[in-house]
Specification:
This protein is mostly beta strands and 72 residues long. Helices cover 11% and strands 39% of the residues. Strand 3 and strand 4 form a beta hairpin.
């Protein structure tokens, strides 16, 4: 599924943040990101989590998250 999104920046949040994203919660942001940027999200084991978006405050908001992730 992430092949279609390869033009988007990839972000690998730490385990607690990845768990929060899986639960639909926003997490602390990404440096050098602009509000509205779409990003690919991966966990530390390189499983594709889904699609996120950078908020006005620079946080990452989950947009489309897969259930268990997809191994690359």
């Amino acid at each position: 599924a992430d092949t279609l999104l390869r033009d988007l920046a990839a972000v690998v949040p730490e385990a607690p943040a990845a768990a929060a994203l899986r639960q639909g919660r926003s997490v602390a942001g990404v440096s050098k990101a602009v509000e509205g940027d779409k990003i690919r999200l991966y966990d530390e084991e390189k499983n594709f989590l889904g699609l996120g978006e950078v908020t006005a405050g620079g946080d990452i908001a989950p947009k489309k998250i897969l259930g268990n992730g997809q191994k690359l």
